[in-house]
Amino acid sequence: MRPEPPADGERRFSVVICVYTEERWEDILAAVDSVRHQSRPALETLLVVDHNAALLDRLARHYERERDRKEVRVLANAGPRGLSAGRNTGIAAARGDIVAFLDDDAVAEHDWLRHFDEGYDDPRVMAVGGRTVPAWASGRRPVWFPEEFDWIVGCTYRGLPPGRVRVRNVLGGNASFRRAAFDAAGGFATGIGRDGDRRPLGCEETELCIRLTAALPDAVLLIDDRAVIHHKVPAVRERFGYFRTRAYAEGLSKALVARSVGAGKGLESERRYTTRVLPAGVVRGLYDALLGRPGGAGRAGAIVTGVAVAAGGYLRGSLDARRGGPRFSHGPVEAYGKGEADGKGRADGKGRAYGKGRAYGQGEAGVAADPLDAVGPVTRADSPGPAGVAAGSPHADGSPGTGKGRPW
What we know:
35% of the residues lie in helices and 16% in strands.
């Protein structure tokens, strides 16, 4: 149900944080705490637990005090496993007219929501994203790791313009949308997103933003680099093997996006990235190497390798797409119930779409089959449900950017 606008005209923010493992317990608490201390207060924080009963119980008990329940609501993912369904669950339950998303292993700076809020002064603006800064486990950036590839670890990369700029798509772990955007375009696509460690695909926000601007041609999407979050990069993601894996997944997903929305929309920002930003990075790395600066040759080599591996993934993904490729769909977020925990780890299941017989042609009554995951492979350039982009995929102006390889 679409929330009513606030009587005083002030925009209300609901912040959605999708969580899945107790191993990130301290990170989750830190993320929530960073929302609580915003200079522009949020109406609520929604913690959506992805099919983990122990974590659901623990969080519900932690935030069961009356004061906490008003600020933090603990929900069970009302759809299938994965980040897309978790986000859709949060959107469906949100009471705010602006829905913001924060990664569970990130903390937001004090003015994060305030900078988001300023962007919505223009009624044409449907989404505002921010800048994501890596917090390396080792304490510093690996000398060989090029800033042009920070999208590999889910962070803002070198090549994006500074300031508040219009973009093709925002980065899902640091973004906000008007509730009206989901009314117009539907929710995040399911069937392609991250699911534990089993699926390499993701970046549903890229697909959603392309679909949103197709539904609302006058919509404006922004990134404001003053809206900063700090995102943890674990040691395993500082390794070159991870770099190659994420780059390959990026190519796979880019092929799906191009197949779905057409190469014009699917690759418009990537062309500038590969023809201008990356060559400049190679030159900069070689120049540093000539001057004897640490890591210069390694950065140049990593850029070349990343491009080659991504190209290989794109070719493979193109073949897979022609053969049918992943199955996915999108639909109204209202199909997801609130699933709010009661303080004892139980979800009330209100509004679930699974007790109504067959949902969208699939999902027997009482079966938790996703009603939004009931279509075949993408076959048309104007398909409303194109594949999202792989972890390691573009954000902001569409150049690569969200692939931190998080286990969704």
